Amino acid sequence: MQRLFITTVLLLFVAQICKGQHTDSLYKLLSRTQSDSAKARILGDLAYLISSNNPDSALKLGWQGMALAKKARSKPAEANCLQSIGWTYFRSGKNDSAILFLTEATGIFHGLKRAWDEGRCLKNMGSVYSSTRDYTKAFACLIPAKKLFEDLHDERYAAYIDKEIGGIYRQKGMLNLARQYLSAAIETFESLHDNAYLADAFSAYGSVFWAMKEYDSALLYYRKEYKLCLTTGATANEAYAAENMANAFEAKCGEKNISPWADSALFYITN
Questions:
Q1: Residue 13 in this model has a pLDDT that exceeds 60
Q2: 234-261 burial, b for 16+ CB within 10 Å, e for fewer?
Q3: Rounded to the nearest 10 degrees, what angle do helices 155-171 and 175-192 cross at?
Q4: Separation in Å, CA 135 to CA 93, 138, 143, 165, 169
Q5: pLDDT digits (tens, 9 = 90+) for 60-81
Q6: Rounded distance, CA 234 to CA 56, Å?
Q7: Domain residue spans in the chain?
Q8: What is the distance between the alpha carbons of residues 206 and 222, in angstroms, rounded to a whole number?
């Protein structure tokens, strides 16, 4: 089994079951809403939520929201739909289009002085650039995003940025910096009891030890990740976590495939 470094942004934003519940509530809210601007905002939120699983429908919702936002002359709703359309393009592998729409959304939110929304757009652009290994541009988005979230005292999103930056340093081979940012993110997520992001941070932190060939330490954090994923109901994340465990056990085997590590590797890859 070849070690796979899973980009953290490809892990689910929230547990799938919670996402489904949120989506259902938004559809119900949409059916009761009369205002075009409010409908546009809801459509943008819906598009964002379903962008991973159903990008075609997400784009339709995003453009429907855009039409209503322009009709209502609501710049906040328009920017929200632009961001959702951009994020959906990213999830569809169309990174140039993603940056185009996210950049436009960021500019509108900046002009409206909506710092949290601007920070989220910058965070998302950082994810796009990180996925293409354009780390200079990723940092140019993530660092100001973190400053915005810190000024707003949003610990959760500031820690998310730490996690993203730590992941970039890991991919660049700057492992001491990676550990610094990822450990800070883990500490915050633990204090907030944010298990979805915490599992992701454990995965990235384990990968730092993997790169250092410290497989026992990698297993420690992969096991923490795996246990959390078992509680969220997000089977895709559980599969990634099981694969991490399998790869770490296989690495401990070396070329000799010594039991019981080989048996453990087979157990987790089967899962």
A1: no
A2: beebbebbbbbbbbbbbbbbeeeeeeeb
A3: 150
A4: 18, 5, 12, 9, 9
A5: 999 999 999 999 999 999 999 9
A6: 22
A7: 13-111
A8: 6
Measured between alpha carbons, how far is 164 from 181 in angstroms, rounded to an integer? 9
Q: What is the DSSP string of 116-145?
A: HHHHHHHHHHHHHHHHTT-HHHHHHHHHHH
Q: Which alpha helices (DSSP H) does the chain contain, by range? A: 16-32, 36-50, 55-72, 75-91, 95-111, 115-131, 135-151, 155-171, 175-192, 195-211, 215-232, 235-253, 261-270
Return the CATH fold of 13-111: 1.25.40
Tell me the pLDDT band of 15, cut-offs 50, 70 and 90.
Answer: very low
Helix axes 195-211, 155-171, angle to 10 degrees: 20
Task: Say how far apart CA 199 and CA 191 lie, in whole Å.
Answer: 14
State pTM to two decimals. Answer: 0.81
Which pLDDT score, from 0 to 100, does residue 3 have? 39
Q: How confident is the model at residue 22 (pLDDT cuts 50, 70, 90)?
A: confident
